[in-house]
Design brief:
The complex is a heterodimer of chains A (about 160) and B (about 800).
Chain A lengths: L1 E7 L2 E7 L5 H8 L18 E4 L2 E4 L12 E3 L11 H8 L9 H14 L5 H7 L11 H13 L4
Parallel strand pairs in A: 1-5
Antiparallel strand pairs in A: 1-2, 3-4, 3-5
Helix pairs in contact in A: 2-5
Chain B lengths: L20 H4 L16 E7 L5 E7 L1 H4 L4 E6 L32 E2 L5 E7 L2 H7 L4 E6 L23 E9 L2 H5 L4 E12 L8 E7 L2 E6 L4 H12 L6 E4 L15 H13 L3 E4 L2 H7 L3 E12 L5 E13 L9 H6 L10 E10 L13 H19 L3 H8 L8 E2 L5 E2 L4 H12 L1 H14 L3 E11 L7 H6 L8 E7 L5 E5 L8 H13 L6 E4 L17 H27 L7 E4 L2 E4 L2 E7 H10 L13 E5 L8 E11 L5 E11 L6 H20 L31 E4 L16 H18 L13 H13 L5
Parallel strand pairs in B: 1-12, 10-11, 14-15, 20-21, 27-28
Antiparallel strand pairs in B: 1-5, 2-4, 2-6, 3-5, 7-15, 8-13, 9-10, 9-12, 13-14, 16-17, 18-26, 19-20, 19-25, 22-23, 23-24, 26-27
Classes of the chains: A alpha+beta (about 160), B alpha+beta (about 800).
Amino acid sequence: MTQITVTVDGVSYVDQVEPRLLLVHYLREVVGKTGTPIGCDTSNCGACTVLMDGVSVKSCAVLAVQADGADITTIEGLANGGLHPLQQAFHEEHALQCGYCTPGMILAAADLLRDNPHPSNEEIRDGLEGNLCRCTGYENIVRAVRRAAEAGVAP
Amino acid sequence: MTATTDAPAAELGQSRLRKEDARLIVGQTNWTDNISLPGMLHMAFLRSPHAHAKITRADVSAALRVPGVIAAFSGADFADEQGSLPCAWPVTPDIVIPAHPPMATDEVRYVGEAVACVIARDRYIAADALNSIEIDYEPLEPVLDIRTALDEGSPKVHAAGNKSYEWVFANGDVDAAFRDAPIVLERNYRQQRLIPCAMEPRAVVASSVGGEITLWSSTQIPHVLRFALAAFFGIPEQNIRVIAPDVGGGFGSKLQVTAEEVLAVLVARRLGRPVKWTESRSEGNMTVHHGRDQWQRIRLAADSDGRIRGLSVDLLADMGAYLMLVTPGIPLLGAFMYPAIYKMDAYSFRCTGIFTTKMPTDAYRGAGRPEATFAIERIMDELAVELGVDPLEVRERNWIKHEEFPYTTVCGLTYDSGNYEAATAKARELFDYDGLRQEQERRRASGDPVQLGIGVSTFTEMCGLAPSRVLGSLAYGAGGWEHASIRMLPTGKVEVVTGSSAHGQGHETAWSQIVADQLGVPFDDIRVLHGDTQISHKGMDTYGSRSLTVGGMALVSACDKVIEKARVIAAGMIEASASDMEWTPGRFAVRGDPEKGVTIGEIALATFAAHSLPDGVEPSIDADATYDPDNFSFPHGTHLCATEVDTETGFVKIRSYVAVDDIGLAVNPLIVEGQVHGGLAQGIAQALYEEAVYDDAGNLVTTTLADYLVPSAADLPSYVTSRTESPAANRLGVKGVGEAGTIASTPAVVNSIVDALRPLGIRDITMPCTPERVWRAIEAARANGGAA
């Protein structure tokens, strides 16, 4: 067991974890942040995307011990009360159906907009290549990210 | 288009934003894997590494010695109670339905079949302990190709052989249609095996307390699952509660009674502690039922003007190793769709269901209709080439004209409504069909290495499987009805209970819109409940684009009953005769004296107090309804796809895609558009990207999302969608939309690729049309001097 200190959605946690424990399992089963789902085991689908020190990571491809000292933002802590502009835009553009990919998609989009606040449609599609959605065909996800960009997402 | 609806359409037709989103966009979700119960244990499965083998020894004892392991079982440990997973669609009287134990006991027949399980304190320990289980196998020959599986000398999947059934249908004189026909075309098409890949992997939590079973499962069918547990596994139905919490997509893959669900229940009951199982994606790709996998031979006879005289279809369909819930029926859902929108006098169909040592196939978005639509729309393009006319022209010569509806097809289906001319005209215009044809000519003439192709798909489909008596005539094991309840709360708010369990379709929003209009209550005052058999005791669940056309109509029927009950109480409240009461949504008033009235909310409150109801009237205006429709639903549309095909690399880029769908009245156009988008993506994925591949030993090669190419945003085009409206013959005027995009788009894409390459002599490319396959087809055609 290894001791780690991790800040998740603004709250600091100190835990003893197995070195092999995945960050996503740490978030879901130790911290109780079940808003972050798991969609695959090869880091292809992106459903488990969170922000680690502001940069998007697939939390199934990070060990909890690697997050020692890090500041993690999940879908549950993205907004400071109310909705983040991306959450609002996903709602307004009907950019989710079953909603399983949505947390990862929104956090990946947040990182994309941090990098490139005014992406073209093509840049949005390329930027979200690591996040799979089976329901929407992506059309409305692209629209939502563009809408959020136009609304001006705070970095 | 409101002529067929009863009430002024205040909510119907509005693009209401979804109620469901409030929890989903902030992570306040209740996926099955999120559920944690006190004392809950974790289950992991050991799975067969062989496609076909005898189990000669199974020893789980070493796993029991791993710290943290509570129990370990092989199939033999449940031999007396695990029974056989059900097949509910015995399509012919002599169909072979092999026993299908949830955990194999003496023989395994596909890679991934469960052979043992470990139950441990956490999921890591359970996974570790699988390594300690010892299973000895005696390998047998796999059976991997349905084209040779019925040959003499082929290894056998089951003792009874490799044939499950042969199902035939014929109408009209097919021999006469083909005899002396000026044009006879025969083509063979391949429907590759697909993996549904809902984003949420399957997950199950089962608890058994005092003999009462609660099963949470990521399922599309909580009601059917409850019935199956009772009917096939001997658990008293009244003691079973099935809950489908938030479910992360299904696409048919969660229309199943699975080994893992059954075993979770049996293990929880045996141990007296709750157990959870959550699959990994690799596990899911191997063991969630697959889709498609057919070889199609289609023959078409036509007159010299292109009018179809007859059609003949012969299918080989891969069942996989066992028949699961509706495995054998899936190809037959296509049987009635090959004639599609076209008029003809003769049609014959034959399907042979064949066993292989692969994962069983079953429902996947479209289920039978994409296969049929692909074959007919592909061969209609071949007919156009044969005649030297535009592919839209040959379709128009054959399709049912809008003034001919209702029209009974050669299959005996009665299409209630449609307007193929209108949908096609709209699609042509949005697509700039003529302009693209001119560009295609220019690029052909200039020898552009990137050729332009135009693909057409003028599809229809049958969905909303019903009525029950028709399903019965097809030997389907369930009815086609749906149930709804309206609960009027004392404060005037409304609970709507639906038997149609949603997993992304937006029922909570659309159902609120329907009930708001019917009862005249605000959209926000309505809450829709579903997916828990203790709340929604009766239902037939969600598949086959049935929810709105069947479940939505059940709501209307229930609202009718609420209104009729309310009429009597309203009359009592204002001391008038019930026959003098006039309903406008939300309120009863005295005919000719609209000031004298009471609202539905006031009536609901009156039943709560129940101090002064008329004699003999029960203090409730709640109502239930079970609706069984008269007919299937027949959405249709015209889809046009333009692809740019690089003849040097084989790379295909979809340049534009126009989908004009006619789904009758759209309750919520925003949700409809989303369904079309997602459907298109899955149909395009079949055309270009996805294929489940087994190697020569029967190992699934595409176990991960790195190997099985579910397309990303970067792989898919932007879509232009539009609608025409031919109202269906139900009171809402609605048709299904869940599968239309998938059914329509695959042939549109492949037709466009073949159209781009036809000058090279290419007339087919096997799906998925990967750059390698397209490039090889081009090279082969060039080597043949363009005479492929």
